[in-house]
Each structure stands twice: as C-alpha cells, then as structure tokens.
Design brief:
The structure holds two protein chains of two kinds.
Chain A: H1 2-6, H2 30-44, H3 47-50, E1 56-60, E2 63-72, E3 78-79, E4 82-83, H4 84-97, E5 101-113, H5 118-135, E6 138-147, E7 155-165, E8 181-184, H6 190-198, H7 216-223, E9 229-233, H8 239-251, E10 254-258, H9 266-275, E11 289-292, H10 297-305, E12 314-320, E13 327-330, E14 336-338
Parallel strand pairs in A: 5-6, 10-13
Antiparallel strand pairs in A: 1-2, 2-7, 3-4, 5-7, 8-11, 8-12, 9-11, 10-12, 13-14
Chain B: H1 10-23, E1 28-34, H2 35-43, H3 46-49, E2 54-61, H4 63-66, H5 69-79, E3 84-88, H6 102-107, E4 111-114, H7 118-127, E5 132-139, H8 144-157, E6 162-169, H9 171-180, E7 188-192, H10 193-199, H11 202-211, E8 215-218, H12 222-238, E9 243-245, H13 257-266, E10 267-274, E11 278-287, H14 296-299, H15 315-319, H16 351-359
Parallel strand pairs in B: 1-2, 1-7, 3-4, 3-5, 5-6, 7-8, 8-9
Antiparallel strand pairs in B: 6-11, 10-11
Helix pairs in contact in B: 1-12, 2-16, 7-8, 8-13, 9-11
Classes of the chains: A alpha+beta, B alpha/beta.
Chain lengths: 351, 363
C-alpha cells in the first residue's frame, strides 16, 4: 500500500508537448507508443507488461496462461463483413492467438449510451454470441453500464480473454533474428477501408468487406510445423507498418520488405489512391504477420496456404542486421525506401 | 489496377531510364513543381535511378507548406470560438501555427471537422443554422474551382452562416519569380498536371517563350515523371524551349472551361504571401466584392498580422530549388514532421517531409 501511495502521476511527466489527449494517441502510431511509454509503463511496470506484446503470458501453478484485453469503439456498429460484436470476439481471440495460445474464455463488458434501440443491442449480442461459438470460446463473465445520452457513442464493448499456451511455445516481438523470414497471411487494408467507406461525408460504393476473423485455428496449424516461429502479430490499427516497426524496435533488427509480395486488393488500392492513403498503414482484423526461422519458411507458407484464412499467404521480406529498428521496402522499381511509423492517424491529402 | 499498375512497371521504367541515359550529354537541373510529384520521386527513388548528369530539385507546389503561419493561427482562433464549426481538408489539421494546431484545438473542445469536399461544409451550414460554419480553403488552381463552387452555392442558397477562410495560390507567378532570380539554377520544369487540367496550357506556353525555358506538363506516377524528364532532356539537348504535354490522358489544351468560369465569377487575383518565400504579386485569389459576405476574415473582423519563421530554417532555398532538405543543419534533428521548423516539413508532400519519411537514414 505504502509503495502504491508513493507513486504520483502528478509528477511532471515528459508528455512531449501535449496538454490534452489527441485522437492520434489512439492511432497505433508513434503517439500511441508515447502514451504507453510515458504514462502507462511507469505506472504499472512489471515483467509481463514490459514485453509489450498483444497479450501477457503469466504462469499459474505451472500452467502458462495468455491474458489480454481490448476495447471496441468502431463506428458504424454494423459494417459489411461484421459488426462490433463479432469484432469484439475476433480482436481478443487474435491477441491471444498471437501469443501462440489456445483461446478459452472471454469476458464482455458493454458501455451503452442511453437511448440505444434495444433491437440494436440484441443484434450485437447475438453476433457476439455466434462469433464466440464459432471460435470455440465461452463468454463466462460480463458487465453492463449505461451512460447518459451524449456521454458515449451508441455502444462500446470491452472483452478480455484467457487462453493456454502449450509447453515449448514462446512467441514474442523481441525474438526476431537476422536471416529470419517475414510471412503475411493475406491481402492488407480491407477492414480499414471498409470502415472508412461507411463514414459520414465520405461514403463511397464498394463491394469490400472487412476481413474480421478469428485467427487461432490458423495459428494452431502453423504451430504444428517443425521449426521455430519467433513472433506473430496481427496488424490492426496502424497497419502492417506499425506492427513491423514494433518488432524491428523490440528485437533491435532491421526488416526489409518486398513491395511486390504484399497483396492489396484492387478495391483497397483504388480507395487509397483516391484518398491519398498508403495501405501499409491501414487496419486489418483478420491477418497475421509471422517471423519464422529461415529453415521453416517454406513449410510454414504451405501450412498457411492450406488454411482458408491463409490461402493468400506470402513471404514478404526478411529480417536483417542492417539498420536495426528500421523497416525498409523495395519498391516496384527496385529502389528502397523507409516504411516509417506514423505519428498519428493517416489524414487524407488535399490534392 | 488499370491506369495505375502500367505506370509503375519496372520494365518500362528501365527502358525509359536507358533512353534518358543515352540522351544526356551534360549536367541539367530540372524542377518538379508539384508536391505530389516530389512525393512520387522520393517514394520510388526516381532521383537515384536517373543518370548522374541529371539533378532534380523540388518546387514550391505543396499547398499545405506554403500556407502562411498567420493564416493557420487565424483558423485556430476561429475553431476555438464556441459558435464556429471549422471544416478543413485532412492534412491541414496537423500543420502547426505559431502555438498550436487544429488537432490540438479539436482536443481542447473546438469543433473541427474533416471534409473531402467543400460542399460538405455547405451541407453542414444548411443543417446547423445555429452554428457559423467556416471552410478552411487552401490550395492551388486544383482546389480553387470546388471552393469557388461552394461559395457560389452558399450564395444561391442564401446561407448566412457559411464563410471561407482562404489562401488560394497560383503556380505561374511562383515559377516567374524563380526564373527571375539571378541565382536561379533550374533549366527545365515539370509543370503540375492537375493544375494544368484546370487552367490549360496558356500561362505555361507564355512562360516557356518568355524565359526560353522548356516546360513539360507531367503526371504523378513514376512513369509519367520519367517520361516528362525524358521530354525535358530531349528539349534541352536540342536547344528547344517549348511547352509539351506528357499528361495527355488528363490535360486538354484549354483546361476545364467550366471550372475556369466559376473561378472567374467568384475570385479576383490578388497578391499573396507564400510561407517560406514571401509575398508574390498577383499570385493568389481572393473572393470578389459581391461575395464579401462569405469571407471569414471580414465576417469575423480578423486583423492582418505577420509571424516570424524560425531563422534556422532554409525553406526559402528548398522551395526555390536552391537547396536540398539534407543541406539544412536542423534536418531530422531539430526539425521533424512532429516538430517542424518550417514549411516543407509540415505536409507529407513537402520536400523536407518526403526526404524525412523515405530516406532520412544513411544507406
């Protein structure tokens, strides 16, 4: 208790030049990292948290557990390919799966804005239930809060999840080694562009659906391949760029990508060209990146392609000892450029 | 993807590069005007693929970069007023004024919204008569027609709660200024394709004749730019100085006549200050007197004022093609996109930001 009391967040934290939280602090880019490093880590620092992976791995009575939590604030609540309910299951299941865990149990907390149509809530709950059933996880505890009209945006959901990690499985973003191979399970940018296309003031017609999906069975298939997987990440907000930059920084290695190997569907590319966005920074909800030791790469690729969620898997690059902490990409013309982490959200250009 | 992939093809690029290399016999300095073109050059490393005799310098064609600090301060002041909804293009939100930016203003309670078209701002004004809606309208001849149309439409609808905070700038006076400087090094220009799609060839033909300088209207994909470079090299090597159009799939000779008409109806030409360069005569647009009721500076009685730029910044040289971003002692250290000292570091299309984003580290 005494120890807890002595920690004062009122001490002048070096918060850059930000007096207020900006939307960009939630973008998954540099501002988000700054918030974690300067506000949350000093407050809660411990060994499990310090790994900064998508999930904590903790040991309880000799059993290795993965534990994670995620909040969902997607707008609109319903979008082609999913809704906030299915997303709340997929997001948390995937965070567990990226640690090599078999997801088992979820909690679900609903923060509901006064006036939300009961039918909307029922549809979301139904979808959450179906997604959990499909993923083979149970929602075993939950909570409900209702806030005044104007204090929320229809509906926010938080889910936490627990899973078990098999003996010998140890995945972490600090384990990439020079020579390792970078694999990506499919095409990028579908979730982010699908959501953008629904936004007020921007609506454009597209047949695109969110790629939202639970990836744990794909991960389970990959864990069967002999040879070592160093780490896995699902490139959600901040896109491929943020996930790879985090791995490069935490493993102190460089990552060299090949642009022609990264699949971008035509609808996604078209929307990005129109809005001045780069698909490397657009969110995904059903894709994973795996860094694997070189001898395992080809078999891993085969295993991924044999799974419905990985049939477009590609080797997209290699880990290098050159330029540690930096991600580079070989363009379609053979030149190399940096793939930087963005400060905040990508903002559409003027012209 | 059609009209995209074929303009990024490695094989065709190699063939074009070989033709350029065959044609070049001496050192030439070429400038691409538009920030979008600079962005493509850096993203694809085109400058590294060109033969050593060719030097690309980057022009002033980034609308976000050349918007004066004091105008950004005015936008922030307006957005901070409780009755105002400030509507802006996305990439203006991160651009710092002298003390803050619009993203921070939004976080502190200002009603700042991103739009993709100025007509969105007109719709917001129609839907919320209790608010004063201000559209932050900046840009070159590319955005001017849509912005003019928004004001024209607001007048037609009789809206009393819509106004525009504007700083439209025009490309030809800036090229004229560059060419008139005794220190000018630029020997050929890639003109901005999308600007020319609006205004046509006329002004650029005059510039080519008057200054005896080759100008090629260029597109924005890697092969567009390589072809434009090839056309410029041919002209320079043959001693020609003409206007040519590489971007024929988009730019008709007369431009977009309807767009020109609405611009003439709504705007007058005026002197404008360019951030990093200074005031250039007859280099911008302002609303004509009959549209004064839609001029935010008049509606809100805003005063003129100048703001000093940090002295270390060499943006004036960079924007005029007389220095490279990496020549600056503050580049990537004291000056970054998160904390820019000057204009070309603030927008993704600014030359300094493009260098920072794609190649700030030594190879």
């Amino acid at each position: 208790m005494a120890e807890a009391k002595s920690f004062e967040l009122a001490c002048p934290l070096p918060l850059g030049s930000h007096d207020h939280v900006l939307l960009g602090h939630g973008s998954g880019g540099k501002l988000s990292a700054e918030l974690v490093q300067q506000v949350f880590l000093p407050a809660f620092n411990n060994q499990a948290l310090a790994r900064l992976d998508d999930q904590a791995i903790v040991s309880v009575n000799g059993c290795k557990l993965a534990f994670t939590t995620d909040s969902f604030v997607v707008k609109p609540l319903f979008f082609p390919g999913g809704d906030i309910g299915s997303l709340a299951v997929h997001g948390t299941v995937n965070d567990l799966a990226m640690g090599g865990a078999q997801p088992l149990y979820l909690s679900a907390a609903f923060i509901i804005e006064e006036g939300l149509p009961m039918d909307t809530l029922r549809r979301v709950v139904n979808s959450l239930r179906n997604a959990a059933a499909e993923a083979g996880v149970q929602v075993v505890t939950g909570d409900t809060k209702v806030v005044e009209r104007g204090s929320g945006d229809e509906l926010f959901i938080n889910t936490s999840g627990i899973g078990v990690v098999a003996e010998g499985v140890q995945l972490s973003a600090n384990q990439a080694r020079p020579g390792d191979v970078v694999l990506l399970s499919g095409s990028i940018g579908e979730h982010g562009i699908c959501i953008l296309a629904q936004r007020e003031g921007l609506k454009f017609e597209t047949t695109l659906e969110s790629d939202s999906a639970a990836l744990h069975t794909l991960v389970a298939a990959m864990l069967q391949v002999p040879g070592s997987i160093r780490c896995m990440r699902d490139p959600t907000r901040g896109g491929l760029s943020s996930a790879l930059n985090e791995i490069a920084a935490q493993s102190r290695v460089g990552i060299a990508l090949n642009e022609t190997a990264i699949k971008v569907r035509e609808e996604v590319q078209g929307a990005c060209e129109m809005l001045g966005l780069d698909p490397l920074y657009v969110a995904n909800e059903g894709k994973l990146i795996a860094i694997v030791e070189p001898v395992a790469a080809e078999h891993m690729l085969e295993a991924m392609r044999a799974h419905p969620l990985g049939h477009d898997a590609q080797i997209i690059g290699t880990v290098t000892e050159k330029h540690p902490g930096l991600v580079t990409i070989r363009s379609t013309l053979g030149t190399t450029r940096i793939v930087d982490m963005l400060a905040g959200d990508q903002l559409p250009r003027i012209c | 993807m059609k009209y995209i992939d074929e303009y990024r093809d490695e094989e065709i690029a190699r063939a074009l590069l070989a033709r350029i290399a065959q044609r070049v016999t001496r050192h030439w300095v070429l400038m691409e005007i538009c920030g979008g073109q600079t962005h493509t050059i850096m993203r694809y490393g085109l400058d590294e693929l060109l033969p050593g005799g060719l030097e690309l310098v980057h022009g002033p064609g980034c609308p976000v970069c050349v918007t004066p600090l004091e105008l950004i301060d005015k936008a922030i002041a307006l957005a901070s007023r409780p009755e105002v909804v400030l509507v802006s293009y996305g990439d203006m939100l991160r651009v710092p004024g002298s003390h803050s930016d619009l993203l921070r203003t939004k976080a502190s309670g200002g009603d700042v919204r991103i739009a993709y078209s100025p007509m969105e701002a007109v719709k917001i004004a129609q839907a919320s008569p209790q608010h004063k809606v201000v559209f932050f309208a900046i840009g070159f001849e590319t955005t001017a027609p849509a912005n003019a149309m928004a004001v024209w439409e607001a007048k037609r609808l009789g809206l009393k709660n819509f106004s525009m905070l504007g700083s439209h700038v025009l490309v030809p006076p800036a090229i004229r200024l560059l060419l008139s400087q005794p220190s000018n090094r630029v020997q050929g220009f890639i003109a901005p394709g999308h600007v020319c799609a609006v205004v046509g060839h006329g002004d650029y033909e005059k510039l080519a004749r008057e200054f005896h300088v080759p100008i090629v209207i260029g597109g924005f994909e890697p092969l567009d730019l390589l072809e434009a470079v090839f056309m410029l090299v041919q002209q320079l090597e043959e001693g020609r100085a003409e206007l040519e159009n590489q971007y024929v799939r988009t730019v008709p000779r007369s431009g977009n006549v309807l767009a020109q008409k609405v611009m003439r109806e709504v705007f007058d030409v005026c002197d404008r200050k360019w951030r990093g360069i200074g005031s250039i005569a007859a280099s911008g647009y302002r609303l004509r007197p009959e549209f004064a009721a839609f001029d935010a500076e008049q509606v809100f009685g805003m005063e003129e004022g100048g703001v000093e730029e940090p002295s270390e910044c060499i943006s004036a040289l960079v924007l005029q093609g007389q220095g490279k971003p990496t020549d600056c002692s503050a580049f990537a250290t004291r000056c970054t996109p998160e904390n820019p000292l000057g204009a070309p570091m603030v927008s993704a299309e600014g030359a300094c930001a493009a260098y920072y984003q794609y190649r700030r580290h030594p190879r």
